[in-house]
Give the backbone structure.
Amino acid sequence: MGDVKVAVLGSGVSGLSAAYTLRRNGIEAAVLEKKNHYGGLCSSFTVDGFTFDTFAHLAFSKNSYVNGLFEDKTEYFVHMPEALNYYDGIWVRNPVQNNLFPLKVEEKIEIIKGFIGRWDRSVFNFDDWLRNQYGDYFTDHFPARYTRKYWTVESRELESKWAENRMYKPSIDEVLRGAMSEDTPNVHYSKEMHYPKFGGFQAFLAPLAEEADIRFSMEVCEIDQKSKTLSFLDHEPMAYDRLISTIPLTELIPMLKNVPWEVRKSAEGLDYTSGIMVSLGFNRKNVSPSLWFYIYDEEIYPSRVYSPSIKSPNNVPEGCSSIQAEIYFSKRKPLTELPGVIAEKAIEQMARMGLFKENEILVKDVRVEKYANVMFTREIYHNRKIVRDYLDSVGILYAGRFGEWDYLWVDQSLLSGKRAAEKLVDDL
């Protein structure tokens, strides 16, 4: 393989973006990927003619640079961000807080009383923040329940900064209107969403990958930051001049030699969720009632379900449809059964919801991703700073959702890789 000037660890969107930026500045980089495909959490896969993504992805960036790389180079469909929620057997338009109309009158009264009775308490955690925004009754029956499913912890165990621009905060007028009428505006943070016509979401990354020197099946097992040497499981060691890492900080720190105990301990204290993806293909159209939907019932395993066939009809054979369900776990909420057993139970649960009949299933695929989301526990900023400061001190650049350890969407991850590459260029 030979030695390299710049090594980029990971071929997800941030790693590909870093390599792309470096090349535009006359610097060649080797992108080292432990798997046999690129894309990371933005990768797609096909099973018997059904194309699925790794978790839910739609493009909605307002950044002209990102759109120039993605949408100017790839044909795409345009979708309105309309989603639903399943709550105690009732379908409610998203977001629930200003679309209460389908709920029972007694429950609407309790929710509205909770909104009116909100008080401005000091915010020490996510639970405090929720109650300030939505009142006690709504918090207990909706976001607190969903937090246990999606984030795998109680809302009081999370801090709140990550949520401030991601959860809609309606006025009391909006709450009242949504309780009395189905005629409410779409208040999603994006007015429209885009998805490739062919190839799954990963098709947006193809223009970046085509230019990159991606070396697959290159799993790094040790990094000597002093001698600037990478060791691999199945390849000869490789020397590098500069290193950009997009792999999780919890994986990177144990690879480094002679890391101080405090840094190792801080890396171990970074929390994240893992996910089971249950991908299903059906022999009929229109299985999903919406582009995506959330499930609040805690006895039903999936927290979020979306439809690849609505994203693009080219994701399925003619006359078919598909859905993907996400089930989350973590070291704070470990699995108690094998993923395959959990997936089968989730399929039975969704069938009982009336989404499909099990004899309509043509394709069934179950996959587990170790790293799904960064968990914003209250210790995150302290631990993350210690780890980042150490990487800065040894000259290792970092980018991406798990490389920075931040709640980054796809466009933010792409820009994160770009920033890391630009910093490297400035340092040369």
Notes: Residues 4-38+212-270+378-427 form a domain with the FAD/NAD(P)-binding domain fold (CATH 3.50.50.60). The longest strand covers residues 361-374. The chain has 15 helices and 18 strands.
